């Protein structure tokens, strides 16, 4: 039995881990690296294993940094079975197709740019929409929380609710080979407890080996109530200045959570009843429709709203913006609008157009409500850049910039430590999915376990 690490190792994105047991090879996630050009190039590098040799791929959830290289895996020979929850299956299809379209658009742009410079160099996308569609054919059995699935003799998997996004899971593997037994628990991304939409993360006990994320392993999140208060305050102050509020938004979970709180704010009279909200993201709109189909994933209070016939994501002034022409028209709005658009890290998507038209305006505000990896445009703005490059132009940053971390869908340090404590005393803990300095800080807090911080390509006997 062996485990090896092929992504999100001393870094936050690109999650990919491999278990070898009883003649089977089981991959946990196959995510995209996100950030600067260097990481984009890393996505095209060999996986570190033969994709054709993978028998099963267990998907913890549908965020791009966990599922975004599955089309490339298929393109390079993967023919195994993908197992995940029903909600993750739907969301992953959406995410992978959207990523493929972006890959194709970027390749066309780079090809045209090369031609303008007198070079006849054709740039190929990392993968295409056809690759993404082909990869969906490998989705097989559906995982249900707390119901064990026998993948093959000697390998059993149980999915537990991770409370991170719709359908997210931690995965417990029970392994047996040649008389040896081992239990390995993959945290996936753990949710922030006490959120309004999803249930709190579950923690199975007794695992001998733990592979856990450390995204926020060095800090504690701001409490939820003052977080929501700050959002309402920023909106009110921006409207009084005559500006717009731009919220770079992840299409999965974050967009829906912000819509939920905007609806609550209007219902409670804390936001104007005339509030105009534009969800400018075809992907987020489709994700919201998927969210409405999987009510089995919700917290009891939200499930009750549905039973009462109330949509937790709808407010009177909400506009779904699918068409490009409609998105462009938003740039003519000088004030009084809340615009939610992707991508959350500002690495692509429509939000870059809205930033181009609002970052230079002192009246407007930009509100970041999620994690921003190093090398992204979002991180540059958050870190205080005075000017940024958008579509080849130098844009001054004069808008009011706010980072409201209390909305994080990730557990903070205290919650991560508590999750680990409830497992018991695992013999070994592998830290992944976090910046290296954060991992080291978190490792210093762990007791009664052997801590490993694997580098890319490292393998360990179980």
Task: Provide an overview of this structure.
There is one protein chain. The chain has 462 residues and is α/β, with parallel strands linked by helices. The chain folds into 2 domains: 2-219 and 409-461, Ribonuclease Z/Hydroxyacylglutathione hydrolase-like (Metallo-beta-lactamase, Chain A, 4-Layer Sandwich), CATH 3.60.15.10; 224-407, Rossmann fold. Helices cover 32% and strands 22% of the residues. The chain has 14 helices and 22 strands. The chain has helices at residues 37-43, 64-67, 70-75, 86-116, 129-136, 224-241, 254-267, 282-293, 300-307, 324-329, 351-358, 377-382, 413-423, 436-443; strands at 2-5, 17-21, 24-28, 56-58, 81-85, 139-143, 149-152, 155-161, 169-177, 180-186, 209-213, 245-248, 276-280, 318-320, 337-341, 365-368, 387-390, 393-396, 400-403, 428-432, 450-452, 459-461. A 7-stranded mixed sheet has the order 6-5-4-3-2-1-22. A 7-stranded mixed sheet has the order 7-8-9-10-11-20-21, with no helix packed on it. A hairpin with a 2-residue loop joins strand 7 and strand 8 (155-161). The protein is globular. The model has no long low-confidence stretch (mean pLDDT 93).
